[in-house]
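re the bet — no i am not wrong, look at it urself. input seq straight from the record:
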Amino acid sequence: MSEQIRPQSSDVVAVAKRKVVCDGPETGRHPRVFLEMNDGEKTVVCPYCSRVFQFAPNEVKKAAHS
């Protein structure tokens, strides 16, 4: 069984797709990683910066139209 990564930051990013790319926050870049949520999962955590990507397509659409 693989170890589950626990987020250490409160940085949560709403995303409309289950595949995301992270290269770190503005204050500290890291190597670009490609992350994917499996079916049924609603979040994925970056192993470098602990940024949480949350699958919330309705929230992303609302923000884009604001």
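see?? The chain is about 10% helix and 30% strand. told u. also The radius of gyration is 12 Å. so pay up
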